[in-house]
Amino acid sequence: MLTQPLLDKLSTLRLPGFRQALEEQREMAHYGELSFEERLGLLVDREWTRRENNRLQRLLKAARFHQQACIEDLDLSASRGLDRRLVLELAESQWVRHHLNAIVLGPTGAGKTYLACALGHAACRQHLSVRYVRCSRLLDELTHAHADGSYPKLLHTLARVDLLILDDWMRDTLTAKQTRDLLEVLDDRYGRGSTLLASQVPVADWHSRFPDPTLADAILDRLVHNAYRLELKGESQRKARSPLAMMNT
Question: Mind listing the domains of the chain with CATH numbers?
Answer without folding.
Answer: 4-62 (no CATH), 65-240 (3.40.50.300)
